[in-house]
Amino acid sequence: MKFAIITSRFAEKAGSALATLNESCEEKLEELGVEFEKFEVPGAFEIPTFAKKILLAKKFDGVICLGVIVRGETAHFDFVAGNVARKLADLGVEFTQPVIFGVLTTEDTEQAEARAVRGGEFAQAAFDLAQELGNID
């Protein structure tokens, strides 16, 4: 099994949460004995486009999409978070592969830091779903 990890680079308000999110995801995949390749995109909004390109290449068993979006003072958060979630869900259905929404959507940096350890849960979800989908013929 091999997964692509797509990470959003833009997370200036997130502190070290993004690094922790990536580390916990990678550690879990290593624990599971799963190969992975890492990719970075400029921001969370770009994740679905890159995920689709990865899925079209048919080199991976799924994608784990990681990022942090912290609510700011404008409606930008709502537009980005909602659209990224919807597009990633659509890709999972379209390609019938794990497309994991590991983009933390938080009110502040403290929430992002607290939830960043969930990277391992996102990795486990990708692994479990890939196995279950592989059992259906």
Any overview of this molecule?
The chain is α/β, with parallel strands linked by helices and about 140 residues long. It has a single domain (about 1-135), classed as Rossmann fold (3-Layer(aba) Sandwich). Helices cover about 50% and strands about 20% of the residues. It contains five helices and four strands; from the N terminus they run βαβαβαβαα. It has helices at about 15-30, 45-55, 75-95, 110-115, 120-135; strands at about 1-10, 35-40, 65-70, 100-105. The chain has a four-stranded parallel beta sheet with strand order 2-1-3-4, sandwiched between helices. Strand 3 (about 65-70), helix 3 (about 75-95) and strand 4 form a beta-alpha-beta unit. Helix 1 packs parallel to helix 4, helix 1 (about 15-30) runs parallel beside helix 5 and helix 2 runs parallel beside helix 3 (about 75-95). The longest helix has 20 residues, at about 75-95. The protein starts with a strand and ends with a helix. The model has no long low-confidence stretch (mean pLDDT about 95).
Layout of SSEs?
Layout: E1 2-8, H1 17-32, E2 35-41, H2 47-57, E3 63-70, H3 76-95, E4 99-106, H4 109-115, H5 119-134
Parallel strand pairs: 1-2, 1-3, 3-4
Task: Give short descriptive properties of this protein.
single chain, four-stranded parallel beta sheet, 4 strands, 51% helix, 137 residues, alpha/beta, Rossmann fold
